[in-house]
Amino acid sequence: MTKNDIAIQFVKGVGPNLGKLLMKKKVYTVSDFLYMFPRTYEDRRNLPKISELSGGETESFIGKIKSIQDQRTRQNKTVTKAVVSDSSGTIICIWFNQLYLSKYLKIGIPYLFKAKCERTSYEPMITAQIIEHEPATDFRKEIVPVYPLSAGLYQSTLRKVARKVIEYVLKVKDPVPSSILKGLELLSISDSLVNMHFPTSLDLYERARKRIVFDEFFYFQLSLSLNRNQYKKRNGEPLKISGSILDSYIEKLPYSLTGDQKKSVEDIQKDVNGPNKMNRLLQGDVGSGKTDVAIVALLMAIESNRKGVLLAPTDILAEQHFLKISKRLESMEIPVYLLRGKTRKKERKVIEAALIGEEPLILIGTHAVIQDPIKMTKLGMAIIDEQHRFGVMQRMALSKKDEFCHCLYMTATPIPRSLLLSCFGDLDKSIISEMPPGRVPSKTYFLRESKLEQVYKFCLNQIEKGRQVFVVYPLVEDSEKLDLKSATEGFEQLSALFSMAKVGLIHGKMKQLEKSEIMQNFKKNDIQILVSTTVIEVGIDVPNSTIMIIRHAERFGLSQLHQLRGRIGRGGNESHCFLIAEPTSENANLRIKAMLDTNDGFKLAEVDMKIRGPGDILGTRQSGLPEFKVASLINDEHLLKTAKEAVSSIFKDDPKLQKPENVFLRESLNQKYHLILSNLS
Ligand code: ADP
Ligand code: MG
User: Fold this and answer.
1) Ligand 1 atom 16: the closest Cα is on which residue?
2) Is the pLDDT of residue 480 over 60?
3) What domains are there in the chain, each with its CATH number?
4) Ligand 1 atom at minimum distance from 432 CA
5) CA angle, residues 406, 410, 413, in degrees to nearest 5
6) What is the pTM of this model?
7) Rounded CA gap, 351 and 547, in Å?
8) Structural contact between residues 652 and 143, judged by C-beta atoms closer than 8 angstroms
9) pLDDT (tens digit, 9 = 90+) per residue, 135-168?
């Protein structure tokens, strides 16, 4: 609990029992409750009279019960029926299976009913199936909050607590300097909190929300500015590139770089030649050839007699990069090392010694490289692949290994501009939007489980043509066992079914050695069908595979589906992606539809953002971004800018927040909700 906050159970009318229920909702204190914003609102200012009820939708009205009785249906269920009226007319109210209701509801006093009403052709002309009811003896014409409910908690109880809780906030001092609030015409924090729960008008609700959104952005920007200046342009050490190594490497490639790849290489070269440390994001859809740009960037460090590091989010991907890069650089006598958490002690010692040595080298690694207190000298280039899988902290840790080191972040996830500015500071951006030539967009199909046999027939045909197949099973949350079971079963089934082909199984629980052996066999086409859990999701490159079968596709996220589909269609052969699914939710249907509609990762990201909201896209937890409770990075982008400007204006005069007018702000930063209740009086 933050300083001077008040435990929720001590709020008048709450007590230990209700307190416990609230704590289950993670509401421990008055502030927790204040920041548990309503899911939606109910406008009770102009309720219709009974005669005005339209029928066909959920409506609320007030009426007195004239008579009430329980009846048993033939199926042995109970129906409670009541005749309810107001000055305008009469209605029949119906409840199902609430046996004691007739004894408990009182005749002659007003109730507020929320109901699904229906017009009838007989008297009374309307009936209502009751969803909620509550006594309306002290009814107020107002907008009331609708909170997210949980077991044992009623809407009316929560509203009662809310009325008590907002009393605490009325005299809180606002931490945001009044000059800023006035300039931006923002509501005070106490008025905002009150109006978030009980808005006195729609206009006031909008203004309250605006203040809360502003606060979310404002405090986020404030802590960024206070804690970091690493996003400011910093001195770098220019790399001296004569071009000989780069040129001979690019010449020897089996293909020529695409225009966008060349442009990205030029961008990077310009950066590393300049006086500032490079801080560049390389964004390109799955399969657009980011790895090739990365290799060239690593070679820039080598040319300049420095070291280059490439980090990948998974062991398999690091190994794949390692194999590809060592092969490519074989004839150039550049040492390439692979360092992972599992690297043996003896080998690790050799690598560690090389890392503090003078010789240029390339290191491919996983998180292990940044987590361990490994020392590196003369680091010229650090690259993070699939950067959204790394956290802000990890990115920072990497650039601390050598503060002059140039950094390149690679991602297939399009990051909205607003986020780029606010969370990644002055990150520059190169985009690869063109695919290497010869790509045939994969055809995508959505089929039910019952059609699997047809899909397998199709596979057989492709395997006879020398092609390879991926079959992917989802990761069932919290149940790796179950997940493994279905993949293992699938493996056994397919092994029996495809006697002429070799079927392989790969999953996260396997030993690293085993995993890489299987991957290698698949690459060599010693395995034709690879059954796997989601371990193959990122970056695996086997151009001869032309079929991707995704089982239980309804359980995958859109970006995952797109990543998986990106594994095929790389070798110039027509490729096919089968989404085998039994979608039950609307979102699952939307995801599958989007996959059928487009192959464009950027369009899919947009759809994904609409379905899930932007925080989730970047995997907030992984990317180290805060979860905004109310703010939307898309719809509230203008406020993000406003908040950023407000923070800059404060920092211009008082970078450490020491001036008297800012001391309170500084103090509130340390509080969970940036709210201090100590000024109650
Ligand atoms: P991603 O951007 O998803 O990391 P990769 O770097 O894995 O993509 O590249 C995908 C495939 O395209 C690889 O097999 C790679 O060898 C191939 N590739 C990359 N650049 C070109 C190019 N310019 N011409 C032809 N093939 C290319
Ligand atoms: Mg890649």
Assistant:
1) 289
2) no
3) 3-39+164-195 (no CATH), 47-140 (2.40.50.140), 244-432 (3.40.50.300), 443-598 (3.40.50.300)
4) 2
5) 145
6) 0.61
7) 39
8) no
9) 888 888 999 999 988 888 888 899 999 999 999 8
